[in-house]
Design a protein that fits this description.
The chain is an alpha/beta fold. The protein folds into 2 domains: 13-134 and 317-329, 3-Layer(aba) Sandwich (Rossmann fold), CATH 3.40.50.1370; 138-314, Aspartate/ornithine carbamoyltransferase (Rossmann fold, 3-Layer(aba) Sandwich), CATH 3.40.50.1370. It has helices at 18-36, 59-70, 91-101, 112-122, 136-150, 167-179, 195-207, 218-222, 243-250, 257-262, 282-291, 300-303, 310-329; strands spanning 48-53, 74-78, 104-108, 126-128, 157-161, 182-186, 212-215, 227-230, 268-271. α2 links the parallel β1 (48-53) and β2. It is globular, with a radius of gyration of 19 Å. The structure holds phosphoric acid mono(formamide)ester and norvaline (NVA). Residues 130, 166-168, 231-232, 235-236, 272 line the site of norvaline.
């Protein structure tokens, strides 16, 4: 059992030990069981949390809201237009005000240093709901999904295809190193992760008997893999002018039937979502009109296949976020 996480912030997985991450995963399983059996678990009744979103969200916002209500807490949602943060009030002042009223603060937005500063001044736990650099709550859901499917995670091989230096890819590399999962970043040289972060992860991975590999070779990178993962090619906050270049660079790393065939026969496909796998979104249709692409980072065939566990993964966001809030607020 790790030491108590009570009072801690959840800003990035590098701040947590292997045992602490394992504990959060086990706790998530327990909360999932309580939810699925309809067992009430209002363990944090009387507490209040605030959710600060400077970028849009479906899964993360709803997970924090539902998990907060299930735990018996009051929940306030603030979007960028309805708070003073950043434009009229500094991060430090906002943190000190919210910390007087709330027991916990979730933040989704831009630089990692904003969420770190919030945590420094708030005096209550702060949870990172996605920054430009990291998306740590997503990782717990992703590993839980693999754990449920395979029955274990240590020793698996997890490949991220595409923009291998974005927040999700960075976070997968960290969680794999921490949990003894072999990680492969498969993408163009231009989109490889920060060398400093790679170095840190390789040192952690060595201690946990796993490997970190960077490759631009799809065949070699995905051969025999257990998990094939991808994410959108242009992340929130990046300019839309980047689409042309990203399509050129990342199209060869699209997850399609050939990629899945080259992976292990029992491999699963995961994606944090949202995903551009068809023309049922306005952005997807615009890209189609401009570039003629009907599907982007993953083909519709793979997305809709039996190997795709993306909706189990999305559900697990809620159970894992609940575990993080409970562990840090109890
Ligand atoms: N995966 C994820 O964070 O989804 P949202 O952007 O909808 O929160
Ligand atoms: N990399 C994506 C993840 C969305 C959950 C983004 O930052 O937009």
């Amino acid at each position: 059992m790790p030491r108590s996480l009570s009072g801690r912030s959840f800003l990035k997985l590098l701040d947590f030990t292997t045992e602490e991450i394992q504990y959060l995963l086990e706790l998530s399983k327990q909360f999932k069981n309580l939810k699925l059996t309809g067992t009430p678990h209002k363990y944090l009744e009387g507490k209040n949390i605030v959710l600060l979103f400077e970028k849009t969200s479906t899964r993360t916002r709803c997970s924090f809201e539902v998990a907060g209500h299930d735990l018996g807490m009051g929940v306030t949602y603030l979007d960028p237009q309805s708070s003073q943060m950043g434009h009229k009030e500094s991060i430090a002042d906002t943190a000190r005000v919210l910390g007087r009223m709330y027991d916990g603060i979730e933040y989704r937005g831009y630089d990692q240093k904003i969420v770190e500063e919030l945590a420094r001044y708030a005096g209550v736990p702060v949870w990172n709901g996605l920054t430009t650099e990291f998306h740590p709550t997503q990782m717990l859901a992703d590993v839980l999904t693999a754990y449920e499917y395979f029955g274990y995670y240590k020793g698996l091989t997890w490949v991220f295809m595409g923009d291998a230096r974005n927040n999700v890819a960075n976070s997968i590399m960290v969680v794999c190193a921490k949990l003894g999962i072999n990680y492969v970043a498969c993408g163009p040289k231009e989109n490889m992760p920060d060398p400093e972060l790679v170095k840190t992860c390789k040192e952690i991975a060595k201690k946990n008997n796993c490997t970190i590999t960077l490759t631009d070779d799809v065949k070699k990178g995905t051969k025999g893999a257990n998990i094939i993962y991808t994410d959108i090619w242009v992340s929130m906050g990046e300019p839309k002018e980047l689409w042309a270049e990203r399509i050129r660079l990342l199209h060869p790393y699209q997850v399609n039937k050939e990629v899945m065939k080259n992976a292990d026969k029992d491999a699963i496909f995961l994606h944090c979502l949202p995903s551009f796998h068809d023309l049922n979104t306005s952005t997807g249709r615009k890209i189609y009109e401009e570039f003629g692409l009907k599907e982007m980072e993953v083909t519709d065939e793979v997305f809709e296949s039996a190997q795709s566990k993306v909706f189990d993964e999305a559900e697990n966001r809620m159970h894992t976020i609940k575990a993080v809030m409970y562990a840090t607020l109890k």
